[in-house]
Amino acid sequence: MPRRRLSPGRVHIDRLTALDAGNLRVEDHGVPMHVAGLAIVDGGPLRDATGHIDCAAIRAHVDRRTRSAPRLRQRLNGTPRGAGLPIWVEDPAFDIVNHVKFQELPGAADEEALLGACAALNEPPLNRSHPLWEMWLLSGSPDGSVAVLVRLHHVLADGVAALDLLGALFDGTAHQQRPPAPQQASSTDVLPRDLYQDRLLSAANTVEKSAAKLRHPVAIVRRFGSRLQQVRRLLQEGTAPTISLNRPVGAHRQLTLVRADLGRASLVAHLHRGTVNDLVLAALGGGARRILDSRGELTPGLVLKVSEAASLRRHDAGQAVGNQVGIRIIPLPLDEPDAARRLTEIARGTAARRSEAPYQPGGRILQRWMVRVMFRQRMVNVLASNLPGPAAPIIFAGARVRELFQIGLVQGNIGLSVGVLSYAGRLNFDIVADADTVPDVAMFAAGLTSALRDLDVLATGAGEATPGWSPAVPTGS
């Protein structure tokens, strides 16, 4: 959790964590660090008596709901040299108009047009002078449905925290209405002496905790041994193969959506002694096989390295904000062309890894080094995230959410990312590709879709769920 302390006699200070500061460093190197969610909702309840989107009512709804998620009304403030990491402060000029915006889609407004608009809107970095999120409502579908694109900076939330924060804006989620948080400092409340004092107190607390740990040498040895084991395991993983998907990413993205049936996916995974996540990896392998084969890079014995996010949160940790996430590096063998046999092979390989703790980012020096080498790293080939979403349909401002997707990011020299989110009986895939490195993302999407079809889990009736949007078509700006 973010560090929350009280400087004696003054104000509550909430600092950015070191891990989240690392995300800002990545963005400072030219890669926007925000994630997004895409919801397709019934448009009728969002319209006024004239049939137009009721912008004022929607903004009022969102403005009201942000009060149960205080981080959505806070911005980052820099600190003087030597005064520590930036702090979260209440934005005294918070204006919902800066965060909830509207756009009419041109032309036929099919899924290609929708995803093209989402790719373009999601490319710019978020404005750091405001709270680090925004919502776009995109209308124009022939059936009257509306797409809701929500962008959140990674310092605001990882995947799990993003679902919790967004839960404040939707009805029917697991988000609980909590008591008001302690009064947050405004930018004018915090004086430089408060920041320096807070940092000194933090340093003293660190020394005190370190001294306390020295009284338990067995625990120190155990923690050191665990870290040493992780380093040894990381070295044993070896480097990722050199493939053309791993080139420095550019500024533009392409998005593709694919749908699967969650119940069927769970059953098929169980029959192959695996998990739904194993099935996701098997489908990802189908996509990788197809695109690499089209590029002449599907060599015998090829094993890709997939970086998969793993939450480190406790269920009782209160409102989820910031980042508490590790990664697992999963080997993805591509020799097997049959999706079912590939699933069995993957399930066998991941079973032994489930008991292993995820890799966790190291100290500030290691984080800075990782940022510097991210455009030429050789640890992983593809990014993946698989999150459990709401099991039952949820509501936005009175409108039923038909479909829900998570939209991840690509960074460094990793040009392909697959985000998966379960929602109301569906397993929804979103593929994010760098438009320069992976202009042929359609090949990857076709291979992934074919694998889901071979496993008999590809969703049917997607058109019934969203009549205005055509089937998945890769697109971008």
Q: Give the N-to-C terminal Cα separation.
A: 37 Å
What count of structural domains?
2
Tell me roughly what share of residues is in helical segments: 25-40%
Q: What's the overall geometry? A: globular
The first-level CATH class name of the largest domain:
Alpha Beta
Instruction: Give the CATH topology of the largest domain.
Output: Chloramphenicol Acetyltransferase
Q: Outline the low-pLDDT stretches.
A: 1-9, 175-182, 316-320, 462-477
Overall strand count: 17
Instruction: Give the overall pLDDT as a whole number.
Output: 83
Would you tell me the structural class of the helices and strands? alpha+beta
Cα-based radius of gyration, to the nearest Å = 23 Å
H-E string: EEHEHEEEHEEHHHEHHEEHHEEEEEHHE
- Read across the widest sheet, the strand sequence of neighbours is 11-10-12-15-16-9-17
Strand content: 15-25%
Provide the CATH architecture of the largest domain. 2-Layer Sandwich
**CATH superfamily placement of the largest domain:** Nonribosomal peptide synthetase, condensation domain
The count of helical stretches stands at 12
Major beta sheet summary: 7 strands, mixed
At a glance:
The protein is an alpha+beta fold.
Can you walk me through this structure?
It is a single chain. This protein is of the alpha+beta class. It folds into two domains: 12-192, Chloramphenicol Acetyltransferase, CATH 3.30.559.10; 238-392 and 407-476, Nonribosomal peptide synthetase, condensation domain (Chloramphenicol Acetyltransferase, 2-Layer Sandwich). The chain contains twelve helices and 17 strands. The chain has helices spanning 18-28, 55-65, 111-122, 159-167, 192-214, 217-237, 262-271, 276-294, 339-351, 364-373, 441-454, 462-465, and strands at residues 4-6, 12-15, 34-41, 74-77, 87-90, 100-104, 133-139, 146-153, 253-261, 303-311, 325-333, 382-388, 395-396, 399-407, 416-423, 426-434, 475-476. A seven-stranded mixed sheet has the order 11-10-12-15-16-9-17, sandwiched between helices. The chain has a six-stranded mixed sheet with strand order 6-7-8-3-14-13, sandwiched between helices. Strands 1-2-5-4 form a four-stranded antiparallel sheet, with no helix packed on it. Strand 6, helix 3 (111-122) and strand 7 form a beta-alpha-beta unit. Helix 1 runs parallel beside helix 10, helix 8 (276-294) crosses helix 9 and helix 8 (276-294) crosses helix 11 (441-454). The longest helix is centred in the middle third of the chain and has 23 residues, at 192-214. The two termini are 37 Å apart. Mean pLDDT is 83; it is low at 1-9, 175-182, 316-320 and 462-477.
